[in-house]
Design a protein that fits this description.
Elements: H1 20-42, H2 58-75, E1 81-84, H3 89-98, H4 112-119, H5 156-172, E2 183-188, H6 195-206, E3 212-218, H7 231-234, H8 238-248, E4 252-256, H9 260-266, H10 271-280, H11 284-293, H12 296-306, H13 308-314, H14 319-326, H15 334-346, E5 352-357, H16 379-389, H17 405-441, E6 458-459, H18 461-476, H19 485-492, E7 498-503, H20 512-515, E8 519-520, H21 528-531, E9 544-545, E10 552-555, H22 559-569, H23 572-576, E11 581-586, H24 595-603, E12 609-612, E13 637-640, H25 645-660, E14 669-673, E15 679-680, H26 682-689, H27 699-712, E16 714-718, E17 732-738, H28 742-754, E18 758-764, H29 767-771, H30 773-777, H31 781-786, E19 801-804, E20 807-811, E21 817-820, H32 831-835, E22 839-842, H33 853-859, H34 864-879, E23 882-886
Parallel strand pairs: 1-2, 2-3, 3-5, 4-5, 7-10, 7-11, 8-9, 11-12, 12-14, 13-14, 17-18, 17-21, 21-22
Antiparallel strand pairs: 6-15, 16-18, 19-20, 20-23
Bound molecules: thiamine diphosphate (TPP).
């Protein structure tokens, strides 16, 4: 379908007269399509022996089939978002296939043949551009529009929650967007024990994210089998606990248990006893055992034994009828589900959590069997199912016949959904191109012109972070205080998209200037501190607002939540074309708390900055436990560890420019390590100016060269090349230092100089760019050519020569490398092997202690003394190198 340029007003009315038999019939077909999709993926002709199993989750699809059908076939609006449990993705694909909702990378709808081909390619690797589906929901799937990627359970529903918060932020700050999406999330009952979900729940309640609907597929089973809970201790079933939890957290909690048939029976005379028994006399475990046994006469027997009143009520019904009502759960009743979902959508200020009772493996031979999580139906079972549903086993991905009621229903549904999605895609694309035009016209400043630096001779990087955040916030509020027109123009145009957040460490990470009176979100509180004159003038004013430009989102100590929020709001440009850029501060050590969320954000190519501050053993006074840094190497993120304040300015200016101009492919995220240890800022220029290469350069030229090297991963701060007596292979060592330890490296270099040794000091600003994946991609160009590091052998005059037959033995040397950093050795320990020389890596190799930084650097041998010792050691080792040269060659 071609994109229609003219505006269509999507039909957002909820269908009224629904023929549920038709919807059920479509659901049955979709379910069969999902089963065949998994079946085909598992029975490929070309599977080699020893290949890992493919697998799939027919039982989980069975469990969720009606929930998904109610959403896709009846309730979803074009702008809605979906965070569904990973193992039901084939069912999503099947329903989207019937809705013709598959698109290529240009957002053009698939032809019928392409749709069918895609359905054959679950978990297939696309070699020639053929359409495929990843194992679990993925952005690149043909139906990936507004799906949150799935795989790790417990994370995507939280991202849905914070994307909803992003919409609230956009709306309150008057960013133009004509959308009111619902965020549909479906999770398993075992998944619902994930702490990430529990951690986020109060946030959704308090922030009144009423467009959020979480549904728990309550099938009382998980991967390992039937769930057996201590209901006595819990004071009820897990469903009861979940509903109580929802209510306690400001949500509407709904237990959706009984299907329409049960409800009909409850209304009969004596039917109330059936309800009582079903509600009160069965533990989940016992109910599940009766389901698994699946014998109508047993079902009656068990019910009879629970109540004599019920026994007489059931007398007039057959075993099969009793069994049917016993198994009639609302999670498989589309009508019940639709009623409940409609109700949930009504209140846009209160999120809803629905516990929908279901049966895992519903309708399959292993229905409710404890071990059915990955069970596959045999071909015969599938063929029988196809026959019963009148679907071709061989051609299962065909549409319904044109004149069928189902196809007519689907045509109507497609007419509602697909143009609406097209319209959103068009609007987002327009917003993006308009924005890029604006962004590319900006004369981008290379720093933030933080003049306060002049008055801070011993500044630290964490301080500089606070200055930058404050300046951006000032500009976002339209306050153009400074005389630097270029800077105000540049950052002034993007500052409104910049926001900060922190898990209760905003003020201790120097984000206070951006917090003071600028906390986002209305919590319905009067400003009592102001009223009673109780404002603490020394602390940030944390009263939240919704009516003014507010640029900080405050979190409780919930690192996972804050990380998911950063990732979700950092994804806003992708979803909507509004280029928000969130920067979260967090104590570096606690990034580990949010590692899974962090990985999710990066996998998802979200654009955001994590400011891990303070970090490492440089945090010595704070203690031992906080000191092990979060040294991650994950694609799509560049890690930085600046030492001088100016470096941080350049790094953040570059990161923001890349984000706003979308020049950030595969490096969308930044992780910056800052510290509170001050460095003498004067050393920066002083040391640079002593270098021979800069003798004739202006300060501005020096700064520009160093800026460029900073952004490539490192620069030479002390460089003796060109000095008299500088003799590589004899008296030269390269010291690579990172972060706060640069100060120790400078001291060590001076001490070594007193011993007649030239110790160059290279500052590593980004281990990722200089030595890791990014550098590997261009053969370490900056290290080798930019900084001039090599493994060359130097045979200086005076080298020893001895001879052995046809060979001459020469004693010479290379320039050895000593690296020093506050972190795990692996960050910098490969320099020697890249260039081919001896390296010693001084790093954090044991847990730490409290103390002054001097004490603690010494404890880890990272102080100037340790660096001098290390340098002497590597020099000694390379001085013993001998090289064999053929006499013939000489
Ligand atoms: C964080 C995480 N842990 C473990 C898994 C592996 N896993 C996938 S599904 C599943 C069981 C899910 O059970 P439940 O949540 O009850 O959903 P059901 O399949 O029963 O609907 C497990 C353990 C995962 N995908 N993510």
């Amino acid at each position: 379908m071609k994109k229609d340029k003219k505006k269509i007003t999507p039909d957002r009315s909820t269908p009224v007269d629904i023929d549920y038999s038709v919807v059920n019939s479509i659901c049955d077909r979709a379910y069969f399509m999902a089963l065949r999709m998994i079946d085909i993926a598992n029975n490929r002709p070309n599977v080699e022996k020893g290949e890992p199993k493919v697998g799939g989750h027919p039982s989980a699809c069975a469990s969720s089939q009606h929930i998904l059908a109610a959403i896709h076939l009846i309730l979803r609006e074009p702008e809605d978002y979906f965070a569904f449990k990973p193992h039901i993705s084939p069912l999503d694909h099947a329903l989207n296939c019937l809705l013709h909702n598959f698109r290529n990378e240009n957002n053009e709808l698939f032809s019928k043949d392409q749709r069918k081909l895609a359905m054959q390619h679950l978990r297939h690797y696309s070699k020639e551009g053929e359409p495929v589906f990843q194992s679990y929901h993925a952005e690149a799937d043909p139906d990936g529009f507004r799906y949150f990627p799935s795989g790790s359970v417990g994370i995507p529903p939280v991202n849905a929650l914070y994307t909803s918060l992003g919409y609230q932020f956009a709306k309150d700050h008057k960013f133009e967007m004509n959308e009111d999406p619902t965020f549909w999330c479906l999770m398993g009952d075992s998944e619902f024990r994930e702490g990430s979900l529990h951690e986020a729940m109060p946030d959704a309640g308090e922030r009144e994210l009423g467009n959020l609907i979480w549904i728990v597929d309550y099938n009382r089973q998980n991967l390992d089998g039937t769930r057996m809970l201590n209901e006595k201790a819990l004071g009820g079933s897990d469903a009861d606990r979940i509903v109580r939890l929802a209510e306690a957290n400001g949500w509407t909690g709904v237990k959706l248990k009984h299907g329409k048939l049960r409800e009909k029976w409850f209304k009969k005379t004596g039917g109330e006893e059936l309800k009582r028994v079903l509600d009160e006399e069965f533990s989940d475990y016992e109910f599940q055992a009766v389901l698994a046994a699946n014998r109508p006469e047993l079902t009656r027997k068990v019910l009879n034994e629970k109540s004599s009143k019920l026994k007489s009520f059931l007398k007039s019904y057959s075993d099969e009828e009793v069994h049917e009502v016993f198994t009639n759960l609302a999670g498989h009743d589309i009508e019940s589900l639709v009623e409940c979902f409609k109700e949930a959508k009504k209140d846009r200020t209160r999120p809803t959590l629905i516990v929908a009772y279901t049966i895992k493996g519903k309708g399959l031979s292993f229905q409710a069997h404890s071990g059915n999580h990955s069970a596959m139906p045999e071909e015969e079972e599938l063929r029988n199912l196809a026959k019963n549903l009148d679907i071709s086993f061989e051609d299962p991905f065909e549409d319904f016949p044109e004149d069928s009621k189902e196809e007519k229903y689907l045509i109507q549904r497609r007419e509602k959904l697909l143009p609406g999605i097209d319209q959103i895609l068009g609007e987002v694309a327009d917003r993006k191109s308009k924005w890029l035009e604006e962004a590319n016209a900006i004369d981008w400043p290379v720093d933030f012109d933080i003049s306060a630096l002049k008055f801070n001779p011993v500044a630290h990087t964490q301080w500089m972070w606070g200055q930058i955040a404050a300046k951006l916030d000032r500009l976002a509020r339209g306050d153009r205080g400074s005389k630097n027109e270029n800077l105000e123009q540049g950052w002034g145009q993007v500052a409104r998209f910049f926001l900060t957040m922190a898990p209760d460490v905003g003020s201790s990470t120097n984000t206070s200037p951006n917090m003071n009176g600028k906390i986002f979100g209305d919590v319905g509180q009067k400003d009592f501190e102001a009223e009673y004159g109780a404002k603490d003038e020394k602390a940030p004013d944390v009263m939240p607002h919704a009516d003014i430009r507010t640029g900080h989102i405050r979190f409780e100590i919930a690192e996972g939540n804050c990380m998911s929020a950063a990732g979700s709001i950092g994804k806003f440009y992708y979803f909507t074309g509004i280029p928000f850029f969130p920067a979260m501060t967090i104590y570096d050590f606690f990034i580990k708390r949010a590692h899974d969320q962090f990985y999710y954000n990066l996998y998802w190519h979200s654009s955001f900055a994590t400011i891990g501050t303070p970090s490492g053993i440089t945090l010595a006074p704070e203690g031992a436990q906080h000191s092990w840094k979060s040294d991650f190497q994950i694609p799509n993120c560049v890690t930085w560890e600046p030492c001088f304040a100016k470096e941080l300015e350049w790094i953040l200016a570059d990161g923001l420019k890349r984000h706003f101009t979308k020049n950030d492919k595969n490096r969308e995220s930044l992780l910056v390590r800052c510290v509170t240890k001050g460095l003498v800022q004067k050393d920066f220029m002083d040391r640079l100016k002593r270098q021979k290469r800069f003798i004739d350069s202006s300060d501005a030229d020096i700064m520009e060269t160093i800026r460029q090297h900073t952004l490539q991963g490192g620069y030479a701060l002390i460089d003796y090349r060109g000095f008299e007596d500088y003799t590589p292979g004899d008296n030269v060592v390269h010291i690579f230092a990172m972060g706060a330890l640069v100060a120790e490296a400078i001291k060590a270099s001076d001490l070594l100089n007193e011993k007649g040794i030239y110790a160059n000091v290279f500052v590593v600003t980004s281990p990722d760019l200089l030595l890791s994946n990014f550098a590997d991609a261009d053969n370490y160009d900056h290290l080798i050519n930019g900084l001039g590091i090599s493994g060359d052998v130097y045979l200086a005059p005076g080298s020893e020569v001895s001879s052995q037959g046809a060979w001459l033995s020469l004693q010479g040397g290379r320039i050895p490398v000593l690296s020093v950093h506050d972190g795990e050795p692996g960050l910098l320990d490969n320099i020697g092997s890249i260039v081919g020389t001896k390296q010693k890596c001084l790093a954090v190799r044991k847990t730490s202690k409290s103390g002054t930084t001097a004490d603690i650097f010494h404890l880890h041998h990272l102080d100037a003394e340790g660096i001098v010792d290390g340098a002497m050691q590597v020099l000694e080792e390379v001085s013993k190198e001998s090289f064999q040269v053929s006499r013939e060659l000489v």
